[in-house]
Amino acid sequence: MPESRIAPDVTARRRAMAAFAEATADELAGALDAILGETAATDLRRPEAGLVMVRGRIGGDGPAFNLGEASVARASVTVGGLVGHAYRLGRDTGAARLAAIADALWQDPARRPAVEAALVAPVEARLAADRDDASRRAAATRVDFFTMVRGDVD
Fold first, then answer.
1. What's the rounded Cα separation, in Å, for the pair 100 and 76?
2. Three-state secondary structure call for residue 48
3. 30-56 mean pLDDT
4. Are 101 and 36 in contact (CB under 8 A)?
5. CA 138, CA 132: separation in Å to the nearest integer?
6. How far apart are the C-alpha atoms of 73 and 49, rounded to whole Å?
């Protein structure tokens, strides 16, 4: 579905969930300690780790092929009647549970600004800085090739 036809709230939740998936366990725990308070989170399904098949395509439009397996942790929780879900690469079920809690809190309009400020914005800033750093390191290894022409070319 084209991005322009997706509801703005869905797009915003995708952005937030991407940040929750990329956040470190320490970033999640630190932000949620301040936001969650005394509210309890209940597991809908025990957090678990498993494998998913990663599929790829050559050139973006070639035939799909199985690339390999990747470890994934998932969790589903409820916080104050709101259901949060999370899938994260790796086997850290604790971080997946924290990400699911963050998703549930983000869905609460009263807590969304706090989650955005304490977790989503800092994670996005860290990821942007990491991309810039990687780009600078790659640019430092760039080699410009050129050809010198000897004599007149007519």
1. 6
2. strand
3. 89
4. yes
5. 10
6. 4
Predicted pLDDT of residue 145: 77
If we measure between CA atoms, which residue out of 26, 32, 48 comes closest to residue 111? Answer: 32
Contact 61, 48 (CB under 8 A): no
Report the amino acid identity of residue 3. Answer: E
pTM comes to 0.81
The torsion region of residue 50 among left (phi > 0), alpha (psi -120 to 50) and beta comes to beta
Chain center to CA of 34: 21
Q: What is the mean pLDDT of residues 12-23?
A: 94
pLDDT of residue 39: 75
CB atoms within 10 A of CB 140: 7
Strand order in the sheet with 65-79: 41-56, 65-79, 82-89
